[in-house]
Design brief:
Elements lengths: L10 E4 L6 H31 L6 H18 L2 H8 L5 E3 H34 L4 H4 L2 H27 L7 E2 L6 H5 L7 H32 L3 H34 L6 H13 L1 H12 L1 H17 L1
Parallel strand pairs: 1-3
Antiparallel strand pairs: 1-2
Helix pairs in contact: 1-2, 1-11, 1-12, 2-4, 2-11, 4-6, 4-8, 4-9, 6-8, 8-9, 9-10, 9-11, 11-12
Length: 311
Amino acid sequence: MALEVMPNSTVFTLSGINASWESRYVFFCITFLYYLVIIAVNLIIIITVALRKPLHEPMYVFLCNLCLNGLYGTLGFYPKFLYDLLSDVQEISRSGCFVQVFVIYSAVLCDFSTLTVMSYDRSVAICRPLEYHTVMTRGKVLKFIVFSWMTPIICMSVLVFVSSGLTLCGSHVEKLYCESWAIVKMSCFSSTLYNVLSYIVILTYAGNSLLIMFSYVKLIKTSLKSSENRKKIMQTCTPHLLSLINVTVALLFDVMYSRYGSRDIAQGLRHFLALEFLIVPPLLNPLIYGLKLNKVRNEVLRYVRSYTVKF
């Protein structure tokens, strides 16, 4: 059967939402409230870190960057998904699709980059406490933040540029949002270049994982020297480790589902596996740090109380 080549297709259709209108309204309300909670929790952390001088330290600046990235990534998914819940047909323009791919996946990679520099920061703070403020200067912190954003932006810009130039033999994306691999699978011709570049990106972030592992090996060695170091590691590194596991597992769900997912799995489960990294990390990351780190929790409570008193 001849392939239907559609190089000029300007619209993609997304995987349909098979639910009654009553269920859609319920899903819309739940999703909208959940999105508001994500925005509120992340903004509270960002504003508190920005306004409270005791939190003007590298660790909390990186936390602020992690929350800012959470808002950026969810902006690429939730507004469009909420609109689709109330629409008869789930469609997105070709350009809009690639913008969504760029925003969502650059945000995920930015999470990894930020967690990498946070692991280095904790390593210096605990293993070389006397040199900490000499090593982690404002200039270096700024360079780390630029690194955490520019690396994902460059990686995703290249991948999106290559995938957007492919000639496609279809226009249906089998997900509730645009995903790069789902688009590449529709290519009429070889996608070798894209695959090579995507593996380079994977290796780049595997290198980040090695840096994190190296930092934790140093931390474990340091923790064996004194009970005070063990206490510091438990207090400041546990939230980081939980966030790292959270983001890694969520992304693995997405990658495994995209490339090896079976259509025999129930649609609801397939959608959850595809959405897990857009649902859990943006809310769990600020909550983990806000609840686990005493300094952040106390400053948030002080800020909320002072703001409440004014009114």
